[in-house]
Amino acid sequence: MDRDGTIAREGSLDRVPAEFAPVIDALRVRVVGTFVRLHSAYLYGSIPRGTAVPGVSDLDVLLALHDEPTDADRREASRIEDALDREFPQINGAGIQLASARTLLSDAERHDGGFFVACLCTPLLGDDLAEHLPRYRPTSLLARETNGDLATLLPGWRLRAAAATTDHERRTLSRPVSRRLVRTGFTLIMPRWGGWTSDLTKSAELFGHYYPERLGQMRTAAATAREPTADPAILKMLIDDLGPWLAAEYTATHGERTPRPGA
Hints:
Layout: H1 21-34, E1 38-44, H2 46-49, E2 59-65, H3 71-87, E3 94-100, H4 101-104, H5 113-120, E4 121-126, H6 140-147, H7 150-163, H8 167-193, H9 200-210, H10 215-226, H11 232-254
Parallel strand pairs: 2-3
Antiparallel strand pairs: 1-2, 1-4
């Protein structure tokens, strides 16, 4: 948090661990050589926060384009992801999100995509969109708009869990599910706590101060986010117990998320 009570940007290129510098250099070259409609590029996650672990952490990237992303853009992003993952053993996968600068700056995304860029993303290339966005505070509005759509995700997670037949498929699903549940649990209590953190372990413990009866489940979610599991019992607990309770408590506390255009 900054001294004025707003949420400070959490990352910096100065914090990128030395082991990951070659990955970032290669990313720059590939992005510039591929996306002619690029407005700006950003890093987010553990690498710009300086907490990344070689061989464990993934590379998280946001590309803001001048126009809406096309299928061709998504194919190029996937190609870069695969190439970086093959070339650099210090990352455990790469993920590139695509969005238009116009969408990220829109009123509908002001407290979701806009907050993401302004507070959780570190500028890498181009003009920083954060210059056109407000300073954010840990309010109920921010909680609702960032994570108030959990209920809409649960049916898809259930379908994927039911269709999973291998340990690999269950591990692949367990990571995003558990990460989202921990972040939703944290933002549920964020306005009461009055601050921000992206640390999953800390998020789970802070959540437990307000909901001690669910702390054990949230600790399991945080552990799964760090080390994905193939245990179907854990997936079932996350998706069929913690998830529905959390979605209902979230809506009761913060209200329903504003519908997005075209959603």
